[in-house]
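Schema walk-through. Below, the input block comes first and the output block second. Nothing else is stored per chain. Lengths vary across the set, and this one has 173 residues.
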Amino acid sequence: MVHIVVRLLVPLLAVLLMDGCGLRGPSVPAEEPRPPEWYTTNVPLMAAYLETLPDAAIGQTLDGILISDGRRWFEGFTYLGQPEDLPDGLRVRMLDDGTRPRAYMWLDDGSEPYSLVACSEPPFKGIRAVKLGDGPYAWKSLQPEHGVVFTPCMPPTWLPATRPSNPPPSGNE
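--- output ---
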């Protein structure tokens, strides 16, 4: 009985935590946890999309990518580019959803793990990363088999000194 209750509560708490932290993208509504097949099908597509963003797209609003459930991920986000001097095998693309920048990260197969740093300030305090698709991500270091994760707490040197950003939607118009 306890196992069933915990199994039902953990995804709900993860969604509530991410919503409260502002980590959910504007085109991704809260819903029940996605099945493993969703990640297997869509995360490689999203990683490929992120990897193909050209430098010419920096500062541009993205059209996003259509995935298997009919949703368009990254739509309306502003592309901020990628940091320089990354460790071998670490892939990072920085996007801004209109509320704050995020670093989307993944590792090439065979790459060394990449240590993640916990955010130090509210509302993200203690969060290291979130699995793409809004799954909870509890590891302290990113491994190649983990797929794509994102974090709003990246090293300050990753962000350009001047960055284009979409203003957050006001909802009052």
